[in-house]
Inverse folding.
């Protein structure tokens, strides 16, 4: 399924995956190129109002399959709200959300997960009292088909299922760099390990789309670089589409194929990183009007 | 003694430390003294004073007062930061202070008649406590005993672990041998070698001084030997792995099996009264395991749990009873036997459990407790209501429920019923244990920890929660059905809120989420008060104190599940 964008494909995609699109850099070209890959997640005029506060105002975003799509914006711009809306944690005020053409509106979060979306949280929300591997097994819940009475009777299918799940969980554990630490309590892991374990738990649901909410919050530059490499590895190894909320511009610029900028719930810019970086509305949103005026004294 | 020493005046460093310790000692002593006076005033001391631990030498009242002083001595010893000499002085001060309050009470009683208000404060009580020494002698005795108790407590805390543990074992052995002398004497009634052991330790009224010494020495030596053995093992195996990650399944299993063996053998030797008590205990164990699924695993607090118990009992009664309320009496349904009605009762309870779960699906936390409390009461009120009287018999209940039969033999003896229930308990325990480790058990844990995240990971909250309610209710329904057959009748007053609270309390004391914990909790909260009937009046005081003590010092419960232990006992990092 991975139609990796050109930039990442050349550097990271497994050999044998033929480039489907050739060299592009400019914004217009970028958009054209995206047109080749189908849209996986689409929000249409998505609005979310909490009482008098409009957290999201007619936001339309297309996330194409196989890309890393960053959502950036100042604090309170509505980024996390967007995630919550996609996950159907909030009942949206108006608009539409589709995953591969299927409407998500009105589903419960577990159905959204079943449709193929998994997410992580800005403040890590692991199940802290259980071990790392148990956290992953919870993520695998959806894929274990044995019923509760089979567990009671310890049926062979159930045991087989459990063994398979454990094996798969150990694989994921290895992938997130926690090989051999499966029996450690989640809360006893270091901060970076917890971040990666949370991503691993999301991967256990076998999503098509992975939504990462500030995976580098509170990390130092070295850890940020590691996380960046890790995110790319996740995409390559699982053929995923990733939506990323980030504050770290370095990470956003290096890792993203496409960037959407939100400010006060409104989409103010969208395009490839280079385009967004130079967009005047974005600079204004981040630095305010004064900076804008200084740069363009006319 | 639980009063936290929070803010203390800061004076000159050297002098202030001494003064601080003095304040600490006086405060601890006062708390112990006030507890003692309270116990005397409400009559606990009186009933304790009537229970002899060692015949003619020591009553439970003495033990109670002495251990109060000991506890405050130990507290002062551990909290005080002064030099050893000063610490000893402070401990003595604390002990004397604790004795002082009772002395003051004696003085007060000598001059003022307090019996119009506190009927328990009779002169007999004090006379028995001070061994007839008169007012002055008694006062000196109290103060001295207080000081001695405090020193003993401090010594006990100050000792290295091994001798301390052995001493505690020895003292507990004496206490158990003394307090439960009736039961033990009954258990020792048959056969030549055992009977002679009995005459060796006991006279008919209770434990002799000689017997106490033997009990102490035996327990002390056994503990010492066990400790030596354990050390030997540890030396051979290397240091124990401190990281508590992997639950030691085998040792957990071994202790559970041991507990079970005791459950099986104990009523056999201890007579039919104990059989009845154990019957009750095992019913509560069944209910406890049901509620454990709801509260311990899925984190769904339920204060209306008794409703499921009631549904099970009434279903059994309606289907099997030989009475005008039985369904067979006014419909064409046949009158069923115990065995045919049992699965139906369980099914009915499960159905009610699911119905019960539906309205509270979206309710969380404290609100859930209130909502379930209301639902539970609705069931009880419905049963005693006039509207349901023609069907359910109102306050008079339904009579003549047959006892279960096996192969044509009616199980009348409570002992037989106990073993029948025990089989059900075993099956239920197996089911609960398997569920706990299954996919569903993990989903419950996830819901308990963080409902939103669990749902976002694809766990169907509605299904999982309803399963928890349904399965929990099934266990309670089973218990209820057996309960109806045991009593051969059902009355609405058996299904009060208190039952729900008892079950919840035994879970908390035993350890939420732990199967052996349920058994320990039921033995302690249901079995013990039944055995010590004369203290029945103070049952809920005991509950309260026990709950506070457990929450304060062992929040994970007396026999926690490995997971719970990790959660509570390991620090939160990151």
């Amino acid at each position: 399924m991975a139609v990796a964008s050109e930039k990442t494909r050349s550097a990271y995609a497994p050999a044998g995956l033929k480039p489907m699109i050739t060299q592009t850099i400019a914004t217009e070209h970028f958009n054209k190129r995206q047109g080749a890959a189908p849209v996986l997640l689409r929000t249409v005029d998505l609005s979310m109002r909490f009482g008098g506060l409009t957290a999201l105002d007619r936001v339309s975003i297309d996330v194409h399959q196989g890309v890393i799509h960053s959502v950036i914006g100042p604090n309170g711009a509505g980024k996390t709200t967007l995630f919550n809306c996609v996950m159907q944690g909030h009942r949206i005020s108006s608009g539409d959300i589709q995953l591969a053409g299927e409407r998500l509106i009105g589903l419960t979060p577990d159905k959204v997960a079943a449709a193929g979306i998994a997410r992580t949280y800005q403040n890590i929300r692991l199940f802290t009292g259980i071990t790392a591997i148990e956290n992953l097994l919870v993520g695998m819940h959806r894929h274990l088909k044995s019923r509760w009475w089979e567990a009671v009777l310890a049926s062979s299918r159930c045991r087989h299922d459990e063994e398979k799940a454990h094996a798969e969980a150990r694989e994921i554990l290895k992938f997130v760099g926690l090989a051999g630490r499966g029996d450690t309590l989640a809360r006893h892991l270091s901060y970076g390990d917890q971040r990666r374990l949370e991503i691993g738990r999301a991967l256990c649901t076998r999503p098509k789309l992975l939504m990462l909410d500030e995976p580098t919050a509170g990390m130092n530059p070295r850890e940020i670089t590691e996380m960046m490499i890790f995110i790319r590895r996740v995409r390559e190894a699982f053929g995923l589409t990733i939506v990323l909320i980030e504050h770290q511009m370095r990470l956003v610029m290096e890792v993203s194929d496409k960037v959407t900028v939100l400010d006060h719930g409104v989409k103010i810019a969208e395009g490839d990183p280079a385009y967004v970086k130079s967009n005047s509305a974005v600079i204004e949103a981040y630095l305010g009007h004064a900076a804008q005026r200084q740069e363009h004294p006319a | 003694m639980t009063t936290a020493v929070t803010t203390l005046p800061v004076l000159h460093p050297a002098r202030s430390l001494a003064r601080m310790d003095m304040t600490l000692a006086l405060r601890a002593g006062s708390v112990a003294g006030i507890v003692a006076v309270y116990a005397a005033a409400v009559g606990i001391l009186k009933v304790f004073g009537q229970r002899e631990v060692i015949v003619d030498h020591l009553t439970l009242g003495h033990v109670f007062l002495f251990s109060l002083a000991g506890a405050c001595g130990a507290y002062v010893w551990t909290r005080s930061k002064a030099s050893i000499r000063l610490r000893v002085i402070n401990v003595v001060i604390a002990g004397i202070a604790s004795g002082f309050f009772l002395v003051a009470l004696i003085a007060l009683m000598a001059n003022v008649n307090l019996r119009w208000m506190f009927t328990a404060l009779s002169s007999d009580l004090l006379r028995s406590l001070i061994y007839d020494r008169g007012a002055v002698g008694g006062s000196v005795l109290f103060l001295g005993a207080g000081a001695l108790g405090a020193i003993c407590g401090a010594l006990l805390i100050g000792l290295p672990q091994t001798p301390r543990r052995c001493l505690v074992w020895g003292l507990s052995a004496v206490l158990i041998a003394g307090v439960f002398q009736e039961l033990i004497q009954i258990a020792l009634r048959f056969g030549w070698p055992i009977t002679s052991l009995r005459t060796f330790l006991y006279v008919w009224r209770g434990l002799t001084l000689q017997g106490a010494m033997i009990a102490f020495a035996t327990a002390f030596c056994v503990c010492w030997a066990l400790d030596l053995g354990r050390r030997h093992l540890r030396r051979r195996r290397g240091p124990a792995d401190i990281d508590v990650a992997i639950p030691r399944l085998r040792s957990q299993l071994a202790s559970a099996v041991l507990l079970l063996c005791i459950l099986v053998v104990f009523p056999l030797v201890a007579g039919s009264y104990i059989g009845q008590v154990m019957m009750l205990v095992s019913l509560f164990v069944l209910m406890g395991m049901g509620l454990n699924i709801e509260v311990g695993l899925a984190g769904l607090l339920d204060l209306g749990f008794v409703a499921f118990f009631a549904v099970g009992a009434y279903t059994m009664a309606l289907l099997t009873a030989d009475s005008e309320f039985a369904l067979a009496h006014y419909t064409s349904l046949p009158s069923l036997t115990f065995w045919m009605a049992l699965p139906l009762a369980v099914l009915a309870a499960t159905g009610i459990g699911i119905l019960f779960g539906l309205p509270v699906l979206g309710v969380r936390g404290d609100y859930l407790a209130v909502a379930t409390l209301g639902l539970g009461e609705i069931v009880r009120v419905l049963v005693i209501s006039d509207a349901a009287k023609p069907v359910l018999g109102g306050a008079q209940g339904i009579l003549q429920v047959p006892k279960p039969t096996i192969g044509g033999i009616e199980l009348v003896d409570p002992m037989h019923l106990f073993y029948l229930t025990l089989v059900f308990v075993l099956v239920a325990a197996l089911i609960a244990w398997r569920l706990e480790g299954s996919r569903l058990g993990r989903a419950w844990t996830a819901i308990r920890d963080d409902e939103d995240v669990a749902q976002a990971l694809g766990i169907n909250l509605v299904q999982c929660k309803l399963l928890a309610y349904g399965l929990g209710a099934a266990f309670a329904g089973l218990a209820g059905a057996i309960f109806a057959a045991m009593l051969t009748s059902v009355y609405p007053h058996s299904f009060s809120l208190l039952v729900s609270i008892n079950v919840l309390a035994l879970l908390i004391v035993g350890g939420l989420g732990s199967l052996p914990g349920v058994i320990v909790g039921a033995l302690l909260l249901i079995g013990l008060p039944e055995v010590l009937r004369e203290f029945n009046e103070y049952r809920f005081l005991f509950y309260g104190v026990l709950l506070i003590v457990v929450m304060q010092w062992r929040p994970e419960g007396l026999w926690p599940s490995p997971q719970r232990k990790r959660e509570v006992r390991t620090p939160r990092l990151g």
